[in-house]
Amino acid sequence: MTTFTVSEIAAALGGAVLGDGDLVISGAAEPATAQPDQLALAMDPKYADGLTQGAAQAALLWDGADWQGFGLKAAITVQRARYAMSGLTALMDPGPNIAPGIHPMAVIDPSAVIGADAAIGPFVVIGGNVEIGPDARIDSHVSVAEGTKIGAQVLLHAGARIGRNVRIGDRFIAQPSAVIGADGFSFVTPEKSRAEAARENLGDVGDTKAQSWTRIHSLGAVVLGDDVEVGANACIDAGTIRPTRIGDGTKIDNQVHVAHNCEVGRDCLFAGQVGIAGSVKIGDNVILGGQVGVVDNIFIGDGVVAGGGTVILSNVPAGRVLLGYPAVKMETHVQTYKALRRLPRLAAQVAELQKAVPKPGATD
Fold first, then answer.
1. What is the pLDDT of residues 286-330, one digit of tens each?
2. Domain of 15: which CATH number?
3. What is the pTM of this model?
4. Quick check: is 257 catalytic?
5. 306 domain-assigned
6. Which of 22, 61, 197, 239 has the highest CB neighbour count under 10 A?
7. Residue pLDDT, tens place only, 354-364
8. Among 144, 143, 151, 146, which Cα is nearest to 129's?
9. Chain-centre distance of CA 282, in angstroms?
10. Is-cis flag, bond preceding 326, omega within 30?
11. Which domain holds residue 35?
């Protein structure tokens, strides 16, 4: 078990030490359940009561807290609690236990090049002409298909699948069962399909006949920048001719789907179950909440924020904050929702007014 002193933790967080900086800490816990060797996480005054219930000797506190009044031997104060959490969890998380070196039950093509200090677990399969950078950590049952090149210090959790000819930058993280580089969902009919007719004519398909679908193969692969993370069971499809691209620092949550030919900028954040259709271009620093849907062949500008459940059906200018289906400015959606809730009462009022108005042709 790895332990840290209070001073070591404070240094990692950029926080200030109060009291005994040599106190040894083995983990973190919520204040009410913290044990003597654990750091209680109470970065907001609303957690103060928990400090009196638990047995912690040290705590991570909000700036200005009366740490001695809580009976603590040591404390660390920080300016921004959530940012401090990122440093604390990074310090204390050892990651998956993958033994150094290449496990004898891994299958690696002789033409593959594996960087120095790799840790590759059992049942990993690495194809021909693959290049993996130094300090890679690859857990069990991962597969990397032929021609793929992956940068340094990557972490591929169990069951991740990396397709052929993919390009991945440094410090990439794939959570279990993420799939990078599967074929795009791209099919065509010999003549205009009912879907094409419906789109062109706003639902009127006329006498368009039913036809069988023919696959358009995916030749474009996927290109991921540095510091990209992809969640469990998320899928990024290969492009048709040009690659699907994800920019540096973008983070993708579980069960997200990015379809073929999409181009995503830097430092975007996509929450769970986001679905992005093909050939969408997304700018930098875009945030999409859970279950946001994006139709194909549109553009979303830099800095756009879309709240959970939003469905984006047309181009979005930079900086806009969206909500609803179809997506509108958040303030417009809030006004519309308020009006919608008033409709039953308004309908009842109209019915009462109708009773007071004589019907046409009625006589006294």
1. 999 999 999 999 999 999 999 999 999 999 999 999 999 999 888
2. 3.40.1390.10
3. 0.89
4. no
5. no
6. 61
7. 888 877 766 55
8. 146
9. 15
10. yes
11. 4-92
